[in-house]
Amino acid sequence: MSRPLGVTLIAFVYGLVGMLLLLGFGAAWYLRVASDLVGLAGSFLFILAIIYLTLSYGLWSGKSWAFYAFMLVQGIDFLLAFSSKNLLGLAINGLLLWYFYSRRAWFGIA
Fold first, then answer.
1. Is-contact 74 10, C-beta < 8 A?
2. Assigned domain for 98 exists
3. 110 occurs within a structural domain
């Protein structure tokens, strides 16, 4: 079974975001002499970068844990968009939840 196009695109975007977060971490590390808050922000960026890159790998390779993690993150984002009455966020997150649920067979989930 070949990887669905939407899963490929989301995995690529997550990988790109992870690389950009690593770039932000590098900038914060370089500027850490400015304040301790910048160093703390850099640490947060590093953790987020690792999460995004790990999720990107899992989505790209069809790991079931990546499916569940993605659905959890999108579900939380959907609820946050609902509570703030963000219609665009609701639509995007709802479509992503529906799309990934319909492609769960790629992740080995029946």
1. no
2. yes
3. no
- 93 membership: H or E segment, kind and range: helix 87-102
Regarding whether 51 and 1 lie in a shared domain, the answer is: yes
Asked if 56 and 86 sit in the same domain, the reply is no
Q: pLDDT per residue over 22-31, tens digit each?
A: 998 888 777 7
The boundaries of the domain holding residue 40 are: 1-62
Report, in angstroms and rounded to the nearest whole number, the Rg of the chain calculated over CA atoms: 16
**Which residue bears the tokens 């993150």?**
73
Q: Taking the mean position of all CA atoms in its chain, how far away is CA 59?
A: 10
Collapse the DSSP code of 71 into the 3-class scheme (helix H, G, I; strand E, B; otherwise coil) and give the result. Answer: helix
- Cβ 66 vs Cβ 14: under 8 Å: no
Question: Above 90 in pLDDT, residue 100?
Answer: yes
- pTM for the whole structure: 0.84
Q: How many domains does the chain have?
A: 2
